[in-house]
Design brief:
Elements lengths: L18 E3 L11 H13 L14 E3 H17 L2 H7 L5
Parallel strand pairs: 1-2
């Protein structure tokens, strides 16, 4: 639905960050909830939680790097560079 809403005038991108860590800079929540709960659970149980055989991996991103990505995407949307548009927006993005 998000991608279908995109057009030459409206740039769409879906950003699905993994575990986000680091102190936030905004007026609201400044603490990573995911990492806090994971560490709290690990300390209470004496070991990290494991699902199945424990073969999956979680990627992570620092909150400031994620914020930088939003800024870069906003700047790219405003720049109106057709040579980049096909690579950044819609289904190819």
């Amino acid at each position: 639905m998000v991608l279908a809403a995109g057009s030459d005038s409206v740039k769409t991108a879906i950003i699905c960050p993994p575990t986000v860590y680091g102190a936030g800079r905004g007026p609201g929540n400044k603490r990573s909830r995911q990492v806090y709960v994971l560490v709290s659970t690990t300390l209470k149980q004496g070991q990290a939680p494991q699902l199945g055989k424990g073969l999956s991996e979680w990627n992570n991103v620092h909150v400031h790097d994620l914020a930088d990505l939003f800024v870069l995407l906003t700047e790219a949307a405003l720049a109106k560079k057709p040579e980049l548009d096909d690579k950044l927006w819609g289904k190819e993005g």
